[in-house]
């Protein structure tokens, strides 16, 4: 039986649901009525990453729905690594829209959720009629196999995506101390607690080391309370990390699956919000510069000064305002 012991959360007006999708179930948290806005989280997060957006979007007249991506929380967790390739995530998102009695939705994603949101908009444009991308900009599929690219990054050190790709390896590092690992990872990518320039990067692992060896013993970032960390840790202590990490283990399969969409633009009305201090924004500056070609329906693009990676939690008020303004824009309203 699927778990139904939904944890207590600081959102008394939100409703937890389990909905059937073609390959299992998705847990979601819903608040508000109006046009559907589907919120898709990244790694290592959960629906809870959108706790600030759910009430704000509901108050603005939208039906805000945050999901646990497959492999997370109370959603299905297939054991096969290949079950986490992009078309499966797209099918889950379509299944959620239909299970909620809707035919279309706006999709909003952060981190890996941004990539999943972009893939959903690209593969199913009739269902996902507008798309917002947080932290990770859209970069169309190209002729370079991702694992080959990642293997050349970092020189003598190993790029973190490559480190995550071997089943069981990162789990062995994280799962003995889930709470401590999450605290270090969140802090390392947050504006107020990230390492200073010149210190070892969290994105590279020296030979024989662990990713956490470069975590600093800093206090929690301002956006993350002890209770928030407890929530995230409890979720991953219950589920393990394999399902979440399997997204990294499918980058080459995604590249193969999306061959028919090589260099394809996303033409729906779109929004990008990045953080000035986020490596996703700086490393992918070329992708942002290419938005006129890759996101021809772009309504607006924003890079928030002094903001790190966990953008909708670090700068909740700014993100809520920008999302609401975009959702109310004539371009997005015309798609509903």
Characteristics:
single chain; 336 residues; alpha/beta; 8-stranded mixed β-sheet; 16 helices
Polypeptide structure, described:
The protein is an alpha/beta fold. It is built from 16 helices and 10 strands. It has helices at residues 53-59, 86-99, 112-123, 146-151, 160-165, 169-174, 178-188, 226-239, 242-245, 251-257, 279-283, 285-289, 291-294, 311-314, 316-327, 330-333, and strands at residues 15-21, 24-31, 36-40, 63-67, 105-110, 128-134, 158-159, 204-205, 270-275, 298-304. The strands form 2 sheets. It has an 8-stranded mixed β-sheet with strand order 1-2-4-3-5-6-9-10. Strands 7-8 form a two-stranded antiparallel ribbon. Helix 2 crosses helix 3 (112-123). The two termini are 36 Å apart. The model has no long low-confidence stretch (mean pLDDT 95).
Overall outline: globular
The tally of helices reads 16
Radius of gyration: 19 Å
Q: Give the integer mean of the pLDDT values.
A: 95
List the helices and strands and how they pair.
Elements: E1 15-21, E2 24-31, E3 36-40, H1 53-59, E4 63-67, H2 86-99, E5 105-110, H3 112-123, E6 128-134, H4 146-151, E7 158-159, H5 160-165, H6 169-174, H7 178-188, E8 204-205, H8 226-239, H9 242-245, H10 251-257, E9 270-275, H11 279-283, H12 285-289, H13 291-294, E10 298-304, H14 311-314, H15 316-327, H16 330-333
Parallel strand pairs: 3-4, 3-5, 5-6, 6-9, 9-10
Antiparallel strand pairs: 1-2, 2-4, 7-8
């Amino acid at each position: 039986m699927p778990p139904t012991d939904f944890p207590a959360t600081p959102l008394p007006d939100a409703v937890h649901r389990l909905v059937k999708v073609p390959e299992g179930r998705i847990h979601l948290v819903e608040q508000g009525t109006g046009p559907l806005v589907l919120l898709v989280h990244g790694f290592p997060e959960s629906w809870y990453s959108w706790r600030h957006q759910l009430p704000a979007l509901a108050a603005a007249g939208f039906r805000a729905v945050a999901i646990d991506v497959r492999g997370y929380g109370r959603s299905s967790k297939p054991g096969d690594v290949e079950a986490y390739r992009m078309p499966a995530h797209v099918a889950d998102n379509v299944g959620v829209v239909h299970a909620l009695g809707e035919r279309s939705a706006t999709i909003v994603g952060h981190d890996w959720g941004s990539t999943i949101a972009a893939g959903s908009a690209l593969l199913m444009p009739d269902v996902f009629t507008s798309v917002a991308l947080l932290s990770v900009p859209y970069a169309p599929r190209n002729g370079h196999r991702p694992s080959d690219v990642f293997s050349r990054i970092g020189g003598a050190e190993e790029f973190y995506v490559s480190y995550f790709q071997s089943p069981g390896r990162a789990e062995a590092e994280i799962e003995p101390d889930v709470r401590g690992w999450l605290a270090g990872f969140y802090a390392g990518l947050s504006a107020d607690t990230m390492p200073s320039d010149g210190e070892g990067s969290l994105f590279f692992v020296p030979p024989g080391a662990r990713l956490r060896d470069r975590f600093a013993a800093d206090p929690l970032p301002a956006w993350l309370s002890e209770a928030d960390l407890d929530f995230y840790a409890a979720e991953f202590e219950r589920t393990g990390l394999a399902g979440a990490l399997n997204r990294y283990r499918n980058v080459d399969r995604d590249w193969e699956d999306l061959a028919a969409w090589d260099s394809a633009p996303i033409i729906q009305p779109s929004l990008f919000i990045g953080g000035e201090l986020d490596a996703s924004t700086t490393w992918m500056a070329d992708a942002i510069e290419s938005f006129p070609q890759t996101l021809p329906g772009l309504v607006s693009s924003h890079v928030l000064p002094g903001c790190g990676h966990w953008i909708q939690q670090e700068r909740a008020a700014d993100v809520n305002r920008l999302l609401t303004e975009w959702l109310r824009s004539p371009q997005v309203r015309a798609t509903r």
